[in-house]
Amino acid sequence: MSDDDLSEQLSKTNAALAEWAARSASESDALIERFERMGYEVRDKSVDEVTEILKKPPTRPAQS
Fold first, then answer.
1. Which residues touch 48 (CB under 8 Å, ≥6 apart)?
2. What pLDDT score does 16 carry?
3. Neighbouring residues of 9: CB distance < 8 A, sequence distance ≥ 6
4. Contacts of 43 (CB under 8 A, 6+ apart)
5. Which of 30, 34, 50, 61 suits a disulfide with 22, CB 3.0-4.6 Å?
6. ∠ CA(48), CA(53), CA(59), 5° rounding?
């Protein structure tokens, strides 16, 4: 498998995980809190918005 194929597969996997996590967070205040502490600004966002946010690095430093 070439590096391009691996990169594409990783990108697809990350997108699928971001969607799964966003849908899970829509039903879990605790998960929203965890993402917020990790530096992702997801509070009061739609599932689609959270999905896009989770595809990128956090925008704030993580909190303890």
1. 22
2. 96
3. 1
4. 32, 36
5. 50
6. 160
* Residue that is written with structure tokens 């699928």 in the block: 16
CB-facing half-sphere around the CA of 59: CA atoms within 13 A: 9
- pLDDT digit string, tens, across residues 48-62: 999 999 999 999 999
pTM for the full model?
A: 0.84
Helix intervals (H) in the chain: 3-25, 29-38, 47-54
d(CA 28, CA 25): 5
> Burial, 5: exposed, middle or buried (Cβ in 10 Å; 0-12, 13-18, 19+)?
exposed
For the chain, give the number of residues.
Answer: 64
